Amino acid sequence: MNLFSASLSRKSVMALAVVGTLALSACGSSDSSTPATNADGLKTLRVTMVPGVSSLPLKVAEQDGIFEKNGLKVEFTEGLDVSAWQSAAGKQFDIVFTNSAVYAPSIAKGLDNTIINNTTNASDDYVSVTLATKEKLNKLSDLKGKKLGAPTLTGLTAESFKYLMAKEGVKANEYEIVQMPYSNQPDNLKAGNIDAALTANPYYGTLEREGLVMWGKDLGVEAHKAATGGKVDTASSSMYAANTKWVEENKDTVDAWIKSLDEAIKVIESDDAEARKVLKDWMKMSDQLAKDAIIPEYTTKVDAAQQQATWDVLKSNGTISGDFPADRIKVYQG
Question: Which CATH class is domain 2-122+234-333?
Answer without folding.
Answer: alpha beta
